[in-house]
Write the structure tokens for this entry.
Amino acid sequence: MAAALGWLTVIALGLSAGALLAEGAVLVPFWRSAEPRTFLDWYAEHAGLLFRFFAPLEIGSAILAVAAALLHGIRRRPAWALAAALSLLVLLAFPVYFEDANASFASGSLAPEAVGDALATWARWHWGRTGLMLVAFATAVSALRQRS
């Protein structure tokens, strides 16, 4: 069971990391190249879809990482604990920053002249959480390769 959970965790963290990379490499440049009003309209139309895609990936991978850390023993296999902690930090970024930022985009309440700076800040936060998820994934791969 521990091995299967380890594999599921690695797969989930890898999918999450890949999705965040794609968002940063594809969507963010697309958003930043659009006219502010066009971006705000696009985001308002697609905010729910983005949330329904990313939330289950990030929450699911964090749950699996925590379960793997607990099952493998936090002191006995600290790499699993690190992967879990990093994935939880990715989740924490949502209420700390992304919830309000995303809501301001979705509601269109942001002045068009503020969109560029807001997207630059959003991108910095996004690359931070992407880095955390990539390290969580790499740490989980390393933990999976370790022998009990």
User: Anything to note?
Assistant: The longest helix spans residues 36-72. DSSP finds four helices and no strands in the chain. The two ends are 13 Å apart (CA to CA).
